[in-house]
Structure formats: C-alpha cells, structure tokens
Amino acid sequence: MSHTEALLDHLESLAQKHFGLSTLRQQQREVFNALCSHKQVLAMLPTGAGKTLIYALASLLYHEALTIVICPLIALMRDQQQRMAKAGIQSVSIYSEQSEDERKGAYKLLNSGSVKILFVSPERFALAGFQKFLKRFKIGMFVVDEAHCVVTWGHSFRPEYGQLSALLKSFDKSKILALTATASRSSRALIRDMVFPNADSVFEVVDQPLRDNIFVESIRVYSEDERWTVVRAVLSETKSSKSILYFPRREQCQRAAQELRKLGYHAIVYHAGLERDLRRSAEDYLRQSTRPVVICATLAFGMGIDLPDVQLIIVVGFPGNIEEMFQMMGRAGRQGEKARAAIVWSGSDPKKRMFQFEKMLPEQSLLVERMRTLAAFFPGDQQSKLISKAKVSELMRPFAKDERELSQCVDTLAGVLSMLGRGGSLDSSRSPWVTIETGQNKAISDLLCDLPVGLSRRRIVLEWLLARRKKESLLGNSAYLSFPLNEIEEDTQMLSERLIEVLRFYSDQGALRWKIVPTDEARNSILLMGSLPDLLQQLPRYLRWRTTLLQSLQALSTFVTAEQCRMRTADAFFIQRRQGALMSGQGGCGRCDLCRRRSVSLPRPIIDPNAGALTLNQPDHLI
After folding, report:
1. Which end of the chain is more exposed for a tag (fewer CB within 10 A), N or C?
2. Long-range CB contacts (< 8 A, 24+ apart) of 276-285?
3. What is the pLDDT of residues 470-508, one digit of tens each?
C-alpha cells in the first residue's frame, strides 16, 4: 500500500469517527491526493460536495498545528463552528460582532493549544497585530473558503482577499487550500493571482458546478403577472420542507413574503439589510424548525450553510451572472436527495441586467473621466484620506441624469477603488475612524527619539504609526493617515481613551492634527488611498475583472436560452473542455428540462422571432 493510499484509509477512519461517514467522496479523495503532493491547491467542487469535511479532516493530521480558515461571513463561521463541535473537533471563531468576553475566551482557547481550527474573517486576518499574533503558532494549513469572493463586484467585494497572496507569503511553510463551488476558468485565474503567493504553482481540482441530484430548468414568462403565477404553481407542486425564492433586490423579498403569507404559506425574509439579531434568529429557526417554510432571500442567504430539507430553489429574475445562479441553485438537495432548481425570467431581464452591468462597470474612458474629477482629493502616494459621499456626489452630478444614477456613479467609484485596493466605501464599518495629518516640522521617527528609553503608551502609539508609514512607503514628514479606531486598539491592545490621550498630547505639541470620525459619518464617506496616477496604472486589473464578469453574465444568457442541454452548456464554461466534446457521447446531462423534453418526445417549442438573441424556448407549462 502506497503512502497516499494509507493516508486516505486513515482519513476515512477519521471521517467515520468524527462524522459517522463510512467513505470519502471521489472529489474529496482527489483534493487530498492533491494536498499530498502540492503545497497550493485550488478546488472547485459543487455546493454540498463536502468541502468543509476536507479541511476538518486535514486539521486532524497536523499534530500540534493550527488550521486557519479565512471565511467571509459571520453566519458561515458560526455554522461551521457548530458542526466542528458536534464532530468533537475544537474550533474557535474571531470576528467583529463578538463581545469583548467572547473574544478574550477565543484567545484564551487558542493560547491553550487545544484548538485545531481557527475561523477568521479576511479583514481580521489582514490586521498587522493579528498577523503578529499568529506567528506564535505552528500552522499546518490555511484554507480560503468561498474563494469566489475574490471576483464578486460592488459592496460584497472583500478587498482584503486581494492582500492574501502577500500576507500568506510570510507563512511559507504552510499549505494553502482555496475552496469554492463556482468559479469559471477566468475567475479561477483571478483567484490564483490574488490568493496564492505563487500563482504559477497552483494545482487545480475542478468538478462540475452543480450536483447530479439537482434537476434544473429555465422557465420564460412574458409578464410580471405570469412570473408570479408560475412561482405560485411551482411552489404548489413541491413537497419540500424548505423552499428558497431568490430575488435580486431586498424589497422584492419583502413583497413576496407578504403575498405568500396571504396565500397561507409560512414565509420569512432574509437579506443583508436585516438587523444582525434578526438574521441570527432566522438562521437558528431554520436549522431547528420542522414546519414547512418558504424563505424569500437575496444571494446573502445560505453561503456555505448546510441547511437540510431544501428540495426547491426558485431564482426569480436574472442574477448578476451564472456563478451567482449556481451558488443559489446549489443550496438544494445538500444531503443528496433529489431536488429541483428553476430560474423564472422574462425577455427583458437579461437586457436590464446588461444595462445595469454597463452602469456598474463602465468602459475605461468613462471611468477615467470620472476619476479625474477627484484628482484634488487623492492624498498622495500611498497615503489615505476620507472624503464624504456628499462631496463625491457633488463632483459626479454632471455624469448623472437623476438621483438614482448619481448614487450608482458614487457606488461604481467606490467599487473600483475597493477592487484595486485603493480605498472604497466604508458603509459596513462598525468602528469610528481616526484621521491624522502629520506635521512638516517633525517626523514621527524624531518624536520617538525624544522619548526616554522604555515602554510607554506614547512609544507604543508612535511605533504603530511609524510602522503604518513604513507599510505605506511614506517618504516625507507630512502625510495623511486614516484607519479604523478598532484596528489600532486591536494592534496595540490599548483602550481608545488612552490612545486619544497620546494623540491629544502630540496635537498640543503641534506635531500632528487628528480627528475621530464617528461610525455613522465614516459610513457616509469614501476612503481614497494613494495618487490618481497610481490608480490609473491599476486599470488593466479593472478591465480584467470587467471582462471576467461580463463573460459570466453572457454565460447565464447562454444557459437559459440553450436548445440542446443546459448543464453541458454550463460545463463548457466552467470546465476546460470543448463544448462539442461535452455534447457528444450521452447527448446531454439527463437532468435538465431540455433533456427531459427530448426523452418524452415532446414537440419542439415555438420560438418568438421578435425576441432577439436572448429568446428562450417556451416553458413546459405553456406547451
């Protein structure tokens, strides 16, 4: 027996002991094989294929070493930690919404040496103080969960994911595993570049984007009334204990839930705009409830959460792209039971989505013109400064015909800054911010030299600021710095009152000017970092992102309008094979509405000659 075979046998024994599973799935075995011989692995496995089990079992192989899972959502961290507790694997989470006591308890457990898995957000992982803290531990593996977040757009984009390759480089002895359920070939190239220290040495394990137990269909409607009629009809046919209706916008979730309640359905709402406690209580209720329920949600619901008894997914309208759609559809049938996933769309949906795409991700020339209007507000090379959204809106007004378009212009600028690591919106900030302008008369290094030898509050704060200056390559004495108050508190382990005392002292000395920006004011601000010329040099990265997202949106249109087989069409986009080869052999996937229609010899549906390139075959219920 080879070493790899012996290891897989050992892993299966661990799976039996901790999770009650008699065998590993083929995809899991392939990932473990890859981890045996490669230091960097990117795995695209469909939702429900057991990605969590991979790093849970791997963590048990690293004796006296920690497995760190970088995770984008608090709900996902909480869910995974509960799963680890049931499996008898000690884990902790560290995230922003924890109380001080909860955070201290997590650090205490980590220092005890009993923890096998640490769940942490990318924002927390990127903190300099947290990086320093992690250097105390022996780390066996880093896991970047939901790695497709590297490619998402707008407020859901996590700029800290873009720092991972640089941050992980300092942990050069640890393995790195990136996991995602949906990533096209172009998206995987972005993930390799942004996550892994050495993008050329990443081994990929790629499976189909959706599991075989999910039956998929595309239902075209011709009015909003008909869309709602179809949704009600599909709901009336299901025996699913939990059904999820996905909508593009939050207000659509609210309206749908109200209408369903009138019809006698038990319907609840879930989206990122809900208060934290409401989201948490909804998650807990759905895990425990045995009552049939319809969940009206946005894409924010369900990422990585193992919600049982979901046998029906209805995607109402057009998502942002095909990857988003499969993220939604993949949340059905996670226990292997047969499930149904339908997208219900009208001919205007793809056109509206393309229009929105052009507004959100404008052509380079238009974007550069908008950026130049902000030239006077960029603080300079590698510096950072806050500017109010009201001021940005004032500058963007010539580019917008109404308030809605104006808001979109501001959001687009913030999104581009975020994508390129040059600032962006702070609307999710949970902390006040500190803005500092250091003076021309004396550098921070000079202020440090004036201090007596020995540790003091002033020395701690000045060294932190100096490290920040070095990190940002500031050459002159005068500079703008902006950062969250909780970041310096976390790094220096100093209460905000003590920090403010130090800043006030040096302000009185004329060495700097500072201001505390309240959380609400910060949320209505945009962070600008660096200079405009530096930002413009980064635009090829923006164009690469834009092209990747456009290809994914076009693939969604191809999927819903396919005439032969939907899943073979999707596989051609996600997996590096020629579509002709995919369409040969069996002739189709056997689990989409088009394949089923052929198998029962239904007549060919009528095509609307006036609908253009995005026309879809009429749905079964109209034949």
Report:
1. N
2. 276/97, 279/75, 280/75, 280/78, 283/75, 283/78, 283/79
3. 554 444 456 788 999 988 988 888 999 999 999 999 999
